[in-house]
Every structure is written in C-alpha cells, then in structure tokens.
Amino acid sequence: MTHGNGRNPDRLRGPERHRGAVTLRRDAIPISTADQRLLDSRTRADWKTKDAWRALRILSEFVEGFDTLADLPPAVSVFGSARSKPQSAECVMAEQVGAALARAGYAVITGGGPGVMEAANRGATEAGGLSVGLGIELPFEQGINDWVDMGIDFRYFFARKTMFVKYAQAFVVLPGGFGTMDELFEALTLVQTGKVTRFPVVLMGESYWAGLLEWMRSTLLTDGKIGEADLDLMCVTDDVDAAVRYIVDADAALAAEQDAIQEAAAARRGADA
Question: Cβ neighbours of residue 77 under 8 Å, at least 6 residues apart?
Fold first, then answer.
C-alpha cells in the first residue's frame, strides 16, 4: 500500500544503521562494516589510497570517545548477552546490578544494546545513576537502547574496547556469548600482564561460569598455562551486594595504595632537601 505521497510506509520502516554521526537507512546501508573493510586482506591494493583516511577516522573515534567520557564519574563496565530475554535470570540480575552500582556512586557503561546490556542500563537509570552505552556498527544493527543517557556509536571495535577499559574501575560480566568472552579474557589479560592495576573482574551467574572455571583449573592450570594466582583475578558470585562491595573495597585499597606512594615520595623529597 502507498500513501498519497507515493511512499510505501513498510519500506520506510526498513533497517537503519548508525555509522558515527551518519544515519543510513534502507538501500543506503553498505553490505559490509568499517571493521570488515579494514581487516579484509583481499583489499590490500586499496590500502595505499584509503588507509590514510581510515587513520584519520580512527583517530576521530578516539578523540570523540575521550572528549565525551572524560568527565564521567567513577564507572563500571557491565557485559552480557544481547540475546537474553527481558525476564531471564541474567537480565533480572543485570538490572539489580545496574541499580546497586548507581546507588554506590558509579556510572554504568554497557555496549548499549538489548538484553543484559539494556537491563543494566535500565537499573542504573531508574536508580538515578548515569547510564552510558557504547554502540558498534554491526551487520545486524541493534541500536542504542532507550535507557542510555549518554551514547556513542563506534565504527571500530578496538576504539570502543579502549573506552570500556579506560573509563571503568571494574568489569561485571554476566552470561553471554563470544563478545562477552572477548571482553572477559581481554580484561584478565590486561590485569595478568600488569597493563592495568587492581582492576576487579566480577563474574555473576555462578552456574553459568562453573564449567569454564573448572576447565581453567583442570586444563590451563594443570598444564602450566596459567598460575594459581591467576584464578584469583576473578570474583564469582550471585550476590549483587557482594559484587558491588568487592568493587568498592578494591577502589578503597587502590586509593590507600596511591596515598601511601605519594606520602613516601613526599618523604623522600623532604629528606633530600
């Protein structure tokens, strides 16, 4: 059916993709994403002419992210599946976590999508906290959920992932798929290698993570691929209050450690004088 202006309303409700400041709809949506084009080695011949512009676009994403998020209060990044249903156990838990973090004075950062991310954003917003969503251009566009107060759409995963770590004091990881696992193991690697210090990683949903943790103990640890202390890099709990308390305590310990370092440095300067 068409209206008097000749437009088909069903076509107008077609797909939509956000690419930085640009909104694309229907036939204007390209068949590939910016990440796909960047990482596709088959287009290597185009790199000499196109990669200089890509570098500027990548730089602009970092500048936009840094500028937008620089004034955030202390924040926690919350990860989990976009496929989880609103009444699922993990979404209920995510909403409770978002609210508890907001009440503790933290902003909540998610990937901005549906499922667990939307539940965490909702919990934070309804509790009066600041809710942040860092979206990404995907072939199956999801868009920023309605509970996000401050949203940024990224073209490139690596720029987006930098923001998750740079502006968070901790990660809370709920049941999820490959994307969630990617964020979890990246965080663990950064802590293990000392790239970030005293960065709490909380796994929520004990039964969901039990098999993975047992594999880590029975295979990775037994085979010498990780150390015993590496298993202590994660707090595993179903208790929302315990999760938030773990993060708050880690923050307090880091602040005390930094104060001690500053006092020691001041004492050395006084002795040298």
Answer: 109, 110, 164, 165, 168, 170, 171, 172, 183
